[in-house]
């Protein structure tokens, strides 16, 4: 697992997010524009050249592999490359889950980049979002990371592109397992339901073990 520790606090986290998030949003807009544009071939080729230049500039300094999940000194995770939520990831819709009294919710707009059947959301994207939401729901209850053991999605009817709402709730626990139910709604009701078994890996028995895993990974870097 790629953990590492950065000795920073909330103000520095906020600064870093505000520095990179506008770029992520612009790239997300770019992805949408490439799908929907009707400009001619010359304009497409010109856009490609300009984008290649920008990519080359960004790659002059880059880390190997993925972004990982660095932790602040307060043990706040920064999963900024996460495929569903990452503030550096233009592929992420992004999902912004909120958990209150054991219930996790999120609202997200799924545009052209998330299309599967014409005009509708790809089933894999719905599974991705539900997976993240049930993970955050299970993890926030104990403040310990829970990974997906089994995720069962029932696609009730096609989900139209546009705004959707997600909800998840822990329905039971057994040792390191949390059983989580959830659903996705569009403006006409439920479109997909999920049942998940989320498991806290045995190496994460408590906060001390998580700190030890982060310290060990940081020492290896
Ligand atoms: C605040 C922080 C925020 C952090 C917010 C974090 C949000 C994360 C959201 C993203 C979620 C993901 O996508 S996570 C990525 C996708 N998932 C993964 O990559 C997981 C890969 N699999 C694994 O790492 C492992 O197999 C685990 C951790 C799932 C289980 O390993 P383990 O811990 O060694 O489990 P083990 O001792 O064998 O079994 C423990 C119990 O669980 C059961 N069990 C084992 N595997 C499974 C399974 N796949 N499905 C169902 N049940 C299972 C066993 O029967 C046993 O039940 P009994 O005999 O005790 O009854």
Automatic annotation (TrEMBL):
Its EC number is 3.1.2.2. Residues 118-191 form the Thioesterase domain. It is found in: Cell projection, Ruffle membrane; Cytoplasm; Membrane. It holds the Pfam family 4HBT. The keyword Aminoacyl-tRNA synthetase does not apply. It is a peripheral membrane protein. Transmembrane segments: none annotated. It catalyses: (5Z,8Z,11Z,14Z)-eicosatetraenoyl-CoA + H2O = (5Z,8Z,11Z,14Z)-eicosatetraenoate + CoA + H(+); octanoyl-CoA + H2O = octanoate + CoA + H(+); (9Z)-octadecenoyl-CoA + H2O = (9Z)-octadecenoate + CoA + H(+); decanoyl-CoA + H2O = decanoate + CoA + H(+). It is an enzyme of class 3 (hydrolase). InterPro entries: HotDog_dom_sf, THEM4/THEM5_acyl-CoA_thioest, Thioestr_dom. Its main location: membrane. The keyword Ligase does not apply. It comes from the Bacteria. Keywords: Apoptosis, Cell membrane, Cell projection, Cytoplasm, Fatty acid metabolism, Hydrolase, Lipid metabolism, Membrane, Transit peptide. Belongs to the THEM4/THEM5 thioesterase family. This is Acyl-coenzyme A thioesterase THEM4.
């Amino acid at each position: 697992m790629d953990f590492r520790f950065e000795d920073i606090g909330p103000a520095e986290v906020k600064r870093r997010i505000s520095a990179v998030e506008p770029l992520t949003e612009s790239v997300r807009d770019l992805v949408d524009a490439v799908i929907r544009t009707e400009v001619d071939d010359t304009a497409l080729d010109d856009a490609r050249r300009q984008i290649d230049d920008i990519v080359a500039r960004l790659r002059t300094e880059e880390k190997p592999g993925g972004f990982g999940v660095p932790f602040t000194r307060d043990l706040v995770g920064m999963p900024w490359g996460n495929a569903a939520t990452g503030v550096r990831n233009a592929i992420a819709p992004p999902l912004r889950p909120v958990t209150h009294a054991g219930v996790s919710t999120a609202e997200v707009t799924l545009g052209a980049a998330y299309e599967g059947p014409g005009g509708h959301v790809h089933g894999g994207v719905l599974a991705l979002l539900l997976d993240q939401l049930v993970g955050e729901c299970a993890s926030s209850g104990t403040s310990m990371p829970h990974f997906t053991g089994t995720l069962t999605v029932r696609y009730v009817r096609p989900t139209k592109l546009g705004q959707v709402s997600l909800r998840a709730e822990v329905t039971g626990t057994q040792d390191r397992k949390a059983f989580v139910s959830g659903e996705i709604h569009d403006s006409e009701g439920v479109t997909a339901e999920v049942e998940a078994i989320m498991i806290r890996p045995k190496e994460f028995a408590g906060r001390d073990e998580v700190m030890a895993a982060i310290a060990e990974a940081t020492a290896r870097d």
